[in-house]
Design a protein that fits this description.
Layout (H helix, E strand, L loop, with lengths): L9 H12 L4 E5 L2 E13 L2 E13 L2 E61 L3 H37 L1
Parallel strand pairs: 1-2, 2-3, 3-4
């Protein structure tokens, strides 16, 4: 049986074993749009979910807003925010990803925080761009604060001189 699945993704077998040990049950979604999904092993095909919490999640041509899982396998999928110990991506987009281990053939993301990254990952924010953005934001806040503080001081002095 293990030899028959040698061409399949090894995460699917691991996910099946994990889901057998869990209190949650297996959830299969196909051509569905749902709110919250919880289960031991969740499989999504051509589906959308607001949030998914599972031991293992397999996504194909699907989308999710928030994902919390131990094992994430995605193909042609999109996620807003994801946290996973083990993440495998054939092709997909994730807004923000926190992962222990990430293996990707093609992943586009805004921000990745991961222990180990393998493959082709394109991020919008590198550590340098995040530092520059933070410094620019801090400078803009200080500038606006100083402008509004000066204007308030002038208005209160002007208001006091009209009363006299």
């Amino acid at each position: 049986m293990a030899e028959e699945k040698s061409d399949d993704n090894p995460l699917e077998e691991a996910a099946a074993n994990l889901s057998a040990d869990l209190d949650g049950e297996r959830v299969d979604l196909k051509d569905a749009s749902v709110g919250d999904v919880r289960g031991g092993h969740v499989a999504m095909r051509d589906s959308a979910a607001r949030s998914v919490r599972a031991q293992a999640l397999n996504m194909s041509d699907s989308a999710a807003g928030f994902v919390l899982t131990n094992s994430l396998d995605m193909r042609e999928a999109a996620i807003g925010l994801a946290a996973s110990e083990q993440t495998t991506v054939q092709s997909g987009n994730i807004g923000f990803l926190a992962a222990g281990r990430l293996k990707a053939e093609e992943l586009c993301t805004w921000l990745v925080v991961a222990g180990k990254v393998e493959g082709n990952v394109k991020t919008t924010f590198s550590p340098l761009t995040a530092l520059a953005l933070g410094a620019g934001f801090g400078l803009a806040v200080m500038l606006f604060r100083s402008i509004f503080t000066r204007n308030r001081g002038r208005q209160s002095k002007g208001a006091g001189s009209t009363e006299s």
